[in-house]
Amino acid sequence: MTAALVHAAVLVATAQQPSTNAGKDANGNPLRRAVKTGHVSNYDEMKVLPYTLPDPLTLANGKPVRDARTWLTRRRPEIIRLYETEIFGKIPAKTPKVTWQAVPVRGIVAETTADLTRIVGKVGDGPDAPKISVALYTPVRARGPVPVILLLNFGGGGAPVAQPPVADDIIARGWAYATVGYEDIQPDKIHTFDRGVIGAGDGTPGPDEWGTISAWAWGVSRIIDYLETDTRVDAKRIAVHGHSRLGKTALWASALDDRIAAVYSSCSGEMGAALSRRDFGETVDDMAQNFPYWFAGNFQKWPGRWNEMPVDAHMLIALSAPRPVFITGGTGDQWADPVGEFLAEVAAGPVYRLLGKHDLGTDTLPAVDTPVITGDLGWFYHTGPHAATPADWNVFLQFLGKYFGR
Q1: Active-site residue identified among 41, 214, 244, 265
Q2: Cβ-based neighbour number of residue 336 at 10 Å
Q3: Burial of 130 (0-12, 13-18, 19+ CB in 10 A)
Q4: Nearest CA to 146 among 263, 241, 239?
Q5: Of the residues 133, 221, 358, 386, which is catalytic?
Q6: Measured in whole angstroms, how far is the alpha carbon of residue 406 from the centre of its chain?
Q7: How far apart are the first and last CA of the chain?
Q8: Closest of 171, 148, 172, 151 to residue 161, by C-alpha
Q9: Is 314 assigned a catalytic role?
Q10: Which residues, 6+ apart, have CB-to-CB distance to 374 below 8 Å?
């Protein structure tokens, strides 16, 4: 059986298999059992076995990376290829063209402070071509091009898309923000590769080709294509935000597109900002079993083989260097392993230092609700659930203010 057929078989099995819900532990954390490996979720730090992370500053041939040029021209492309081949899948060389149309609507956020432009991108030329709907909010009194925060949000496909809880503050700073519902780009459902941008392309992906996370990242870049044409937007200052699975997407989009000037990855957890080799909360086994369509078919190699994976979360974060990255976790979201997210940021620090930037400045987990934003890697561990909270957003705006000004 070919790798592509194996991937298809996994998708079918996933849709048919019984629930793997094993209840909750004494602290209310979800317990899941992986069918393939039998692994059950762990939340005990004493049961986290030692692990060794792959060195982002060692080339595939074993030679060290000692300068920025070697990182940018050799090591970074190596890591990108590993993620494309083994994790998220590469975006096909030929993808559908997106044609954008914009319609201004005055005074939606606040009658005297913001303009709204509704932008629709038609994906391909088919009669039923997918349409990506973007809402761009810009300050009315802006003088010249302004920075923009692009929110890759839940919703789309006819469902409403949420506003950021700090919308007024963003506009008051003289920045813009844009929102898009991720399901306008690609449905977040199994057996939907015949829809969205993947369906508008070459059909069922091969084992090293895109799953939905790469498709969503592709959509982010196509929106940036439009923003570069809008004279109200400073295309050199575009930040991207995503929460949970979309936090994973924001990190991968930034890895692929250096037009993204800053990243806010909220509670992105396993296969996002949290270390996979650290057995805590959600695991590779859970991801491969429950969300196979998010990834390349080759990702099915790695359940039960976390320590053999050629990459880990610190390398995904480091792919954005030297650009700033802000990561959050929540005390009520141990499933996403906030400690593992923090440790991944620490382990990405050597790449930032090599490129003349500042790391987190600490390798000790800070107290809860204590921002760490003095460097080019930012961290905030909020009290509360799996969410991008108003407190998170307020800290992110402080962090981003170092780069975007007012």
Answers
A1: 244
A2: 24
A3: buried
A4: 239
A5: 386
A6: 26
A7: 57
A8: 151
A9: no
A10: 358, 361
- CB-count exposure of residue 113 (10 Å: 0-12, 13-18, 19+): middle
Provide DSSP, 176-201. Answer: EEEEEEGGGTS-SSTT-TTSHHHHHT
Q: What would the CATH number be for the domain defined by 3-404? A: 3.40.50.1820
pLDDT per position in the chain (406 positions), as tens?
A: 444 444 554 444 444 444 589 999 999 999 999 999 999 999 999 999 999 999 999 999 999 999 999 999 999 999 999 999 999 999 999 999 999 999 888 655 544 588 999 999 999 998 889 999 999 999 987 778 999 999 999 999 888 899 999 999 999 999 999 999 999 999 999 999 999 999 998 778 999 999 999 999 999 999 999 999 999 999 999 999 999 999 999 999 999 999 999 999 999 999 999 999 999 999 999 999 999 999 999 999 999 999 999 999 999 999 999 999 999 999 999 999 999 999 999 999 999 999 999 999 999 999 999 999 999 999 999 999 999 999 999 999 999 999 999 8
Task: Determine if residue 144 is left, alpha or beta; phi over 0 gives left, psi from -120 to 50 gives alpha, anything else beta.
Answer: left
Task: Tokens 């990834």: give the residue.
Answer: 295
Residue whose entry in the numeric block shows the structure tokens 């590769």:
193
Q: Clarify whether 265 is annotated catalytic.
A: no
Task: Give the containing element (helix H, strand E) for 392.
Answer: helix 390-404
